[in-house]
Description:
By secondary structure, this protein is α+β, with helices and mostly antiparallel strands. The chain is built from seven helices and four strands.
Amino acid sequence: MQRTLSIIKPDAYGAGRIGAIIALLEKGGLRVRAARTLRLTAEQARAFYAVHSERPFFESLVAFMTSGPVMVTVLEGEDAIQRNRQIMGATDPAKAEEGTIRAQYGTNVQNNAVHGSDATDTALGEIAFFFCESDLV
Ligand code: CMP
């Protein structure tokens, strides 16, 4: 069993896609072990995406991620990190496979509906960014 962090971003949250997205994740074999909704501060968004701080899109990404509420979940399942990435589809919705979350609900490479951890070490750090161990059921 493995855990990963998922964020339903402000575009998908605002469009009322939480239920549809969680349904796809559950259908794909992932279970929600913790969940919370919040509106990220700029400081939180900058810290969460610090690895991208030198990229040209960084300030725009921070503005987008703070533009409305998000839903953050810890997902658990066999090979959860890879499985979640498959269900999400490619970062750019235009390149995402049909049926994936980003193909269905993403708009462009920035407003792409969801985030998912990309590796075991980042998953641990990203889960700890939002949750403590006692939040996980
Ligand atoms: P995510 O999987 O959350 O990881 C980093 C985010 O940066 C990504 O999804 C997009 O929202 C955003 N992003 C990645 N590449 C670009 C890009 N070329 N232009 C704008 N935003 C991007």
